[in-house]
Design a protein that fits this description.
There is one protein chain. It is built from one helix and five strands. The chain is of the alpha+beta class. The protein has one domain: Hypothetical protein apc22750. Chain B (Translation Initiation Factor IF3). The radius of gyration is 17 Å and the shape is elongated.
Length: 113
């Protein structure tokens, strides 16, 4: 599954657009509930690691939704976040599910799904 933030894929042709797909994860604002001990002062590897994992989780959920629709790529992927409640934040990855095909020597080859 190709997931890109660009709106096109150099070397590929978009054969079909299947629509928007999203992947959502929700996390607590409580750092102790998330297992993060400190949220202030310098770069904290625990916080950086947690934020990275949460974004990766949202992207994985989005990619799985795209696969269910028959896509082999997501183009124009973006992140968004919002506070759902005073103690809960939503992290969302979204993009456009598409079927793409690799161009080989100017001709389009079928891409595996």
């Amino acid at each position: 599954m190709l997931v890109v933030t660009t709106d096109n894929l150099p070397g590929y042709d978009i054969r079909e657009v299947l629509g928007e797909v999203i992947g959502v994860t929700a996390r607590s604002h409580n750092p102790f509930a998330e297992g993060v001990r400190s949220l202030h002062g310098g770069s904290n590897p625990d916080v950086v690691g947690a934020l990275t994992r949460w974004r990766e989780e949202a992207v994985e959920r989005m990619a799985q939704e795209a696969l269910k629709r028959g896509a082999n790529a997501v183009v124009g992927m973006r992140f968004d976040h919002r506070e759902v409640t005073s103690s809960l934040v939503e992290i969302c990855a979204y993009g456009t599910a598409a079927v793409v095909a690799l161009r080989v020597n100017g001709a389009v080859a079928s891409a595996a799904r």
